[in-house]
Each structure stands twice: as structure tokens, then as C-alpha cells.
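Trying the structure run again after the queue cleared.
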Amino acid sequence: MNTFKHALPVFAVIAAAGIALPGCKKSEPGAKSTQDSGTQQHDDEPHTHDDGSTHEDHADDHAGEDDHAHDEVSLGAITVDGMTIELAQGHGAIEAGHEGHLVVKLPYNDKGATIVRAWIGTEDRTLSYVGKGEYAASHDDYDIHAVAPDPLPPGAKWWIEIEKPDGSKGIGSAEPIIE
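Done. C-alpha cells:
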């Protein structure tokens, strides 16, 4: 039995699935990902923007800035488990199949010990890519990148999950800026 002959179709399917699915592109071994498909984390695959750049590539662009206001629009505040969470959307309007950027400001500072996740779509995460927040100590907030589902479901929202260090979780949502 020729094992290679039988493995070739499997590799073709895997390769096709990898090309067809939007998501993070691998850029450096060992770096952390900020994106998650469904509920699985991909901590071994770092996040890369559509233009091939990473957050680290843009760190010097924003050195010395007091806020993130480069292209972010406030979405206002939402309440999650009795906490008031401030939100801002970057990278322009949400488009189906494209990356969105959300900045989440918590009402407390635990130096990044909280896990913040966000996705675009419906509360049940169907066809959504979940982004895991990167804590920005200089701003005391979390930057999250997530790809919008294609097609974008009617009534799509930003969904935010806050997981505190004690393991408790809360979920809230906000209206995104959509073209």
C-alpha cells in the first residue's frame, strides 16, 4: 500500500481549508496570537494585519502618544456584570470578511491579568473569529482584532467577553460601525 498516494488528498484538503479560512497569518515562532476561530485559542500563531504588519511593527508609530485616537471612533460605554466598559472601534467600518479593531477600557487596572475577548457577529459566535485582547500598559486598555464573518449576519454586533483572574466571566455587546 502506497501511504503517500493516500495522504496526498488529505494534504490537498488541509491546504485548501487553510487558504479558504480568513484568520491570522504565522509571522514569528513563539509570539502570541490575538485571534481565535470559534472558541479555540491559537497562542502559537501570532496576529498579522491584512498588510502583513504586526502590532510590533507599529509600536514606534505610536510611541509617546497619550491615547489610541489614530483612527478610532468611540462606541460609548456598555455594562458587563455591573462594570462600565468603554469601547472604541478602529480600522474604519466593519466589513464582511475583513478585520475589525476594538479597544476595550476596563474600569479597573490589574496590569493585564484579565482576559478580554471580542468577536463580530452573533452572541453564539457562529462563523465568528474571536480575537483575544493584547493588554497595552501605556494606555491601560486592550487591543483586539477580529475578522467579521462573511456574510455578515443581520444585526451583527461587537460581542465582548471579560474573564477576570478569579475565573468569572461576563458578556456584553455594542453596535459596531458598519458601512
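Residues 159 and 173 are 4 Å apart (CA to CA). Worth checking whether this holds up in the mutant runs.
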